[in-house]
Design brief:
Largest sheet: 2 strands, antiparallel
Number of helices: 4
Shape: elongated
Radius of gyration: 21 Å
Distance between the termini: 11 Å
Number of domains: 1
Helix content: 55-70%
Strand order of the largest sheet: 1-2
Length: 171
């Protein structure tokens, strides 16, 4: 069963990246939700806390994706895209209005936002290539020459309630 097999090294890299983003988002989003935007207008505080909620929600999604990393596909790429876009927004802000103080802290936020998603994407591409090659070589539970590999979710044919042709559903 896939759950008993160790993660591939590239899957572990993806998982660590997702857990890193989850930790940053839970701490940062929670703090920003609590603190709001000090010394500002009600409008800006409202927007700030709304985005803190988005930050927290994304952190929960990253946590879930990290826990269920074996079953993840496109979600990993979408999360990486969101984080790259967030880092790009920070970079745009820095170019338009300058680096907030202390500058070293804000630049330390920027670097992982622009680098770690790319590491995660490359590692996930390696996972998908490897599992695709292994799936082509190994027979599956449903007796096909091609199919999912144990490192990915397995699927089985189940009849529909009406007795029509079987559908493919996760087992």
């Amino acid at each position: 069963m896939a759950r008993n097999l160790p993660l591939l090294a590239s899957q572990r890299v993806v998982q660590i990246c997702l857990f890193l983003f989850a930790g940053i988002g839970l701490i940062g989003g929670g703090l920003q939700m609590y603190l709001g935007q000090p010394e500002t207008t009600p409008r800006l505080d409202n927007v700030h806390r709304f985005l803190a909620g988005v930050y927290l929600g994304t952190a929960v999604i990253c946590l879930w994706a990290g826990i269920t990393v074996r079953r993840q596909g496109t979600l990993v790429y979408l999360l990486a895209l969101g984080i790259i876009l967030a880092g790009t927004g920070r970079l745009l802000s820095i170019s338009q209005v300058g680096v907030p103080e202390p500058a070293a802290l804000w630049l330390a936020y920027l670097v992982p936002e622009l680098l770690v998603p790319w590491i995660m994407v490359v590692a996930h591409m390696l996972v998908q290539r490897r599992t695709k090659k292994l799936a082509e070589l190994a027979p599956t539970e449903v007796g096909h020459a091609r199919g999912p590999h144990p490192y990915q979710a397995s699927y089985s044919r189940r009849p529909t309630a009406s007795g029509d042709a079987p559908s493919i559903s996760p087992s």
